[in-house]
Amino acid sequence: MKKVQGNDSFQRINYLYQISKHMAGINPVLSAYYGNLIVNVAKKNVLKIHPDIKRQICKKCRTMLVDKTSGKMKMRNRNKSKHIEWTCNTCGVKRNFPANKGKDHRVWLERPEAVEEVIN
Q: Which Pfam families match (predicted)?
């Protein structure tokens, strides 16, 4: 069995993600601190953060975005396409993600053609 490089770092990122998500409604400043730690741990160990986690972190203040708690989520129509718009309650930054029903808007890592080898 192959060992995954940086496994302890992934475990730390997972733990920090859970704490940050929990603290988002209670104390947004502490949530931003843990979000900043997530990004710093990934940079220090040259690891990629999973796209689902990355989309939940505010780009500016690094607070974890939770709907109706630390951020607002709206569906918008622009130029015949739908977008999900996240607005951070802490700093006010807006982020848009595509959300059309018929199209495949998954990131490359989530597509089946991205899998090269499965390690058991």
A: Rpr2 (PF04032)
Q: Which residue has the tokens 């601190």?
A: 33
Q: Are 112 and 106 in contact (CB under 8 A)?
A: no
Contact 58, 39 (CB under 8 A): no
Rounded to two decimals, the pTM is: 0.78
Query: Cβ atoms within 10 A of the Cβ of 90, count?
Result: 18
Q: Give residue 78's pLDDT.
A: 79
Q: What is the pLDDT of residues 37-83, one digit of tens each?
A: 999 999 999 998 988 899 899 999 999 999 999 999 998 887 878 88
